[in-house]
Amino acid sequence: QVQLQESGPGLVKPSGTLSLTCAVSGESISSSNWWSWVRQPPGKGLEWIGEISHSGTNYNPSLKSRVTMSVDKSKNQLSLNLSSVTAADTAVYYCARFQWPYFTYWGQGTLVTVSS
Amino acid sequence: DIVMTQTPLSSPVTLGQPASISCRSSQSLVHSDGNTYLSWLQQRPGQPPRVLIYKISNRFSGVPDRFSGSGAGTDFTLKISRVEAEDVGVYYCMQAAQLPYTFGQGTKLEIK
User: Fold this and answer.
1) Is B38 part of the contact surface with chain A (CB cutoff 8 Å)?
2) In 3-state terms, chain A is what percent helix, strand and coil (to 5)?
3) B46 at A interface, C-beta within 8 A
């Protein structure tokens, strides 16, 4: 059974950088699957941020200039950095495994609030 | 980006009665490989989403057969034959035919 667990600061100051990690268990982060980040502003819908695999990365063009994703194979985890954050980036951030062509496993999500 | 539009945005349903949600995409979701990458997700209150249906009509493992999907091209439908209390939540359609993956706005299913 694959499990994902997001972690990181719950509060980030405006103009700062949001940094989250997602610990993966039950599967190697180096597998053939893609690992995604999806966010959900409070009370709103889902937005795909991007994905990473051993093949590379794909980012949502709307966030591409501010997003960086990476993996740490030794810890079997993936990371998300989102720079120059504003209140509009306040959301629950999920990591998820994308097993073409759908998301099979999701973390429980972590709420990140952007506020001074 | 492909825009996904769901209707209705809210659906009050009586227990045991059917429910139907529509999803329309701004472009055809037929991939160059010939498959149509439209999936449906359910998000129960306080939970992450989970996949119900993929490639229009394929039920994911463990999904009750009261859930069914249909459609083609740009118009798709999720049907629940008999709504149960555990079906309460928000339903999203999602396309994976083209990057970036995009979701519908969500349809809130509630019990009358």
Assistant:
1) no
2) 5, 55, 40
3) no
